[in-house]
Amino acid sequence: MAVAAIAGMLADWLELPAEEVKDIVLAGLLHDLGKTQLPRSVIADQHPDSERQNMLKQHVLYTLKLIKDLPQLSINVLNAAVQHHELLDGSGYPQALSGDNIHFHARIIAVADRLTEIVSHSLRVDPFVIADTIKTEMFAKLDPTVCDTFIRRFNDYLMNNRLRLSDGSKAKIVFLSNINSTTTVLQTEDNQIIDLTKETGVKIDGIIF
Fold first, then answer.
1. How do residues 173-206 score in pLDDT, each as one tens digit?
2. How confident is the model at residue 24 (pLDDT cuts 50, 70, 90)?
3. Rounded to whole angstroms, what are the CA distances from 37 to 14, 32, 44, 46, 83?
4. What are the residues whose beta carbons fall under 8 Å from the beta carbon of 113, sequence distance 6 or more?
5. Are 194 and 185 in contact (CB under 8 A)?
């Protein structure tokens, strides 16, 4: 559900036609359907060995088997669901596709899937870690257009929030780079300006909700 919702949001931000957004949301709902064919012990294993990792990768082929003959599904939905683990540098699976050989809808699902994975493996969700992870993996692993769209919208969200700093003070972001979150300028409640590229003694401790 989370992947479907995030993928739909990304598709909307990319201003794709309504029918394509619908297909992407449906692909997001179906993308891990093949995991229903795997033992629960494999799905639940947080530290799988190589054998279990290979078993887990088979879920994509199981998904293909389950949905390939459904007449109501478009080829776009099928490709997006089956190719969502393909990566731009060819290191993904199941076909080791690269670059533009990966369906664009699948590249959107891949970013949504990666975002949910980052959050699910974090005891404490740090928005700056999320943004930096996506920035690190864009171009090489994840589609740069999709990632850039997410980062710009995500930065807009961060700009509207108050932050708690490591010294106990509170501040807001007045400048945030779309490339590197360490290039961040803050304004404290007493109107002091802090450039995090120069001020090494203060760090962002979290968002104040």
1. 888 776 665 568 888 888 888 887 787 778 787 7
2. very high
3. 33, 10, 13, 18, 18
4. 3, 31, 84, 85
5. yes
Helices 2-13 and 18-30, axial angle in degrees (round to 10): 160
Which of 34, 31, 109 shows the shortest CA–CA distance to 43? 34
- 1.10.3210.10, 3.40.5.10, 2.50.20.10, 1.10.3720.10: which CATH number matches 2-158? 1.10.3210.10
Q: How far, rounded to the nearest angstrom, does the alpha carbon of residue 15 sit from its chain's CA centroid?
A: 18
pLDDT tens digits, one per residue of 47-79: 889 999 999 999 999 999 999 999 999 999 999
Question: What are the structure tokens assigned to 176, written together?
Answer: 């945030």
pLDDT value at 17 more than 80: yes
Spell out the domain ranges in the chain. 2-158, 162-208
Which residue shows structure tokens 């393909």? 86
Between CA 202 and CA 188 the distance in angstroms is 12
Tokens of 157: 């969200």
Looking at residue 7, what is its pLDDT? 98
